[in-house]
């Protein structure tokens, strides 16, 4: 069984245009079908309802969202029994060094990128040591 079938990609982003662009770029980078959640509350709900909580998830997280923002999402995620299987990459419009430092100090966060992201950024994400083994067989050739 391929590693692709055992890993998921979730995008938590309130701006549908950005979410779709990220989804498109992800699909051009790695063989996957990302799930889009429009805020942190939807993302937690999705993660809670998964059939197999041991399935690893790469979660692309915006910090500034309505209903439940990225910071509150990270706080709730820490208390979840499946949290060890969730690998968060923060993708935000925030250019504040304090936000980057705070995010990277969270044990769930494995990367921090400032919008907009391009395909090369996603290639960098999939090369992160915490997740590269999950997607190594699924990286698509650069076209």
From TrEMBL:
The modification 4-aspartylphosphate is found at residue 62. This is Response regulator. Transmembrane segments: none annotated. It comes from the Bacteria. The keyword Transferase does not apply. PROSITE patterns: RESPONSE_REGULATORY. Keywords: Phosphoprotein. SUPFAM superfamilies: CheY-like. Residues 8-130 form the Response regulatory domain. It comes from Salinimicrobium gaetbulicola. InterPro entries: CheY-like_superfamily (IPR011006), Sig_transdc_resp-reg_receiver (IPR001789), TCS_response_regulator (IPR052893).
